[in-house]
Amino acid sequence: MMVWLIYICAIVVFREGTQISVTAIEDKLPNAWRFTLNIAQKVVCIVFFLMVGYLGIKIMPFASFQKSPNMQIPMKYMYMLFPIASWLIVLQLIANLIRDFGRDHD
């Protein structure tokens, strides 16, 4: 359940754009390059989370026979988290990309 909570929080973090990041290089770049770097970062994240979602679907049939040791919940419900949360994060990132392209980039 803790993993579910972490992924739900990650969806909110990606929506708000408040994830932790190191901006030492980004701060030294001109605005045009910052915009390009920002777009590249989001595209890489989109590809990563699409892969996590796809692999989450691929692993679910193997988990359908397992139950969690303590709560006796089928593990397929636990593994269902990966495609659902990953695709929600992808939707948030796409919305952020659309929002970024709508802004002024001096």
UniProtKB/TrEMBL annotation:
**Signal peptide range:** none
Give the record's keywords alphabetically.
Answer: Cell inner membrane, Cell membrane, Membrane, Transmembrane, Transmembrane helix, Transport
Query: Membrane spanning segments where?
Result: 39-57, 77-98
Domain Tripartite ATP-independent periplasmic transporters DctQ component: residue ranges: 1-101
Q: How does it sit in the membrane?
A: Multi-pass membrane protein
Q: Where in the cell is it found?
A: Cell inner membrane
Protein family according to the UniProt entry: Belongs to the TRAP transporter small permease family.
- Protein's name according to its UniProt entry: Tripartite ATP-independent periplasmic transporters DctQ component domain-containing protein
Native species: Pseudodesulfovibrio indicus
